[in-house]
Write a structure and sequence with these properties.
Low-confidence stretches: none
Oligomer: single chain
Largest sheet: 4 strands, antiparallel
Helix content: under 10%
Shape: flat
Mean pLDDT: 87
Radius of gyration: 20 Å
Distance between the termini: 32 Å
CATH class of the largest domain: Mainly Beta
Number of helices: 0
Order of helices and strands: EEEEEEEEE
Strand order of the largest sheet: 6-5-8-9
Structural class: mainly beta
Length: 145
C-alpha cells in the first residue's frame, strides 16, 4: 500500500484482507520503506485469528454493474446447505448453483452470467442450518454488456 508521505502528524492506514477465512490464523507485518531504500519494521503480529460470523448475511455483489461475471459474498453462522439462484425481472429462474453443505464462515463465489442478456437480475441465497434455522436473502444486480 502506498504511504501518505512524511509528516509530523500521525497518519492512519487501513487494510482489509478479503481473502481471510474464518477459523484460520494469519500473520501480518507493517514496514516503512524510506525514499533511500531503508526498510524498517513498524508493527508485526503473527497470530490474528479470524472469527466465525455470528449471523447469516448476503452482501451486495461486486463489481456492480458487471460483465459477464461478478462476486457474491455471504456469511454462514453455522454449517448450512446453501443454494444461490438468479432470477430475471419476470421472476423466472435463469441460473442456480447448489453448493451443498458448507462450513460456517465467509465466502466469495464468482458467478459467470455471460450467457444471459444485459439487464437487472435478482440473486437469492437460501441457507438451511443444521439446527433447522433457515436464512433467505435477495439482492439486485445489473449486468451491462
Amino acid at each position: 500500500m502506498k504511504g501518505l508521505g512524511t509528516s509530523s502528524t500521525g497518519r492512519a492506514y487501513q487494510f482489509v484482507d478479503t481473502k481471510a477465512k474464518s477459523g484460520e490464523v494469519y500473520g501480518y507485518k507493517v514496514q516503512s520503506l524510506a525514499t533511500d531504500g531503508t526498510v524498517k519494521d513498524i508493527w508485526a503480529q503473527d497470530k490474528i485469528a479470524v472469527a466465525t460470523p455470528i449471523s447469516y448475511a448476503l452482501y451486495q455483489n461486486f463489481p456492480n454493474p458487471f460483465n459477464p461475471s461478478t462476486t457474491i459474498r455471504f456469511d454462514l453462522k453455522e454449517q448450512s446447505m446453501v443454494t444461490l439462484e438468479v432470477y430475471n425481472m419476470l421472476g423466472q429462474k435463469v441460473e442456480s448453483w447448489n453448493y451443498g453443505m458448507m462450513e460456517a464462515g465467509r465466502y466469495d463465489k464468482m458467478v459467470d452470467m455471460g450467457r444471459l442478456p444485459s439487464g437487472v437480475y435478482y440473486y437469492r441465497m437460501v441457507a438451511q442450518g443444521k439446527n433447522n434455522e433457515g436464512f433467505i436473502s435477495i439482492r439486485k444486480a445489473m449486468m451491462i454488456k
